Amino acid sequence: MPQKNAGIDKTLVNNARMEVDRTRMKSEQYVVQGDYKSAVDVYADACRKYPNDEALFTNYGKTIGDIHRAAGEAFSREDFASSGRAYYVLLKNNSYCQELFREPSFDKGFLHARLEDCSSHLAQRALAEYRKGNLAEAI
Asked: In terms of Cα–Cα distance, which of 127, 119, 128, 126 is closest to 80?
């Protein structure tokens, strides 16, 4: 009898590991595509299913870090639309991230400030395009 239970447990563990790996790969693809919300959402779903999987939470933390890094790089390149989208996802998931990781490399105040900066820069660009008569660019 113990042999049968060991086989079932091993199968469950292997299935969970494969799903965690699929989650990581899916999330990485979303990050590369700039779809940060989906990158976080696939982890949220997996975390509900496997709340005690350390590898899952470690990879989730790396993904949050990757999104934070991408937001900062986009901000440096003055790609304020991409940067703002990334910072928005981080802000919306900030309380959950703090719960998971205890010391995120960003805080709510910083995220709000960056979103304000992105918004301000985009509004200034839109106004400049509008003044030039480039309505499509302004929008």
From this structure: 119
For 71-119, write each residue's pLDDT tens digit: 999 999 999 999 999 999 999 987 665 565 555 556 888 899 999 999 9
**How sure is the predictor about 1, in pLDDT bands with cuts at 50, 70 and 90?**
very low
Reported as a single tens digit per residue, the pLDDT across 118-131 is 999 999 999 888 88
Residues 94, 91: Cα–Cα separation, whole Å: 5
How far from 78 is each of 7, 68, 118, 123, CA to CA, in Å?
Answer: 54, 15, 9, 13
Q: What is the DSSP string of the chain?
A: -HHHHHHHHHHHHHHHHHHHHHHHHHHHHHHHHT-HHHHHHHHHHHHHH-TT-HHHHHHHHHHHHHHHHHHHHHHHTT-HHHHHHHHHHHHHTHHHHHHHHSS-SS-HHHHHHHHHHHHHHHHHHHHHHHHHT-HHHH-
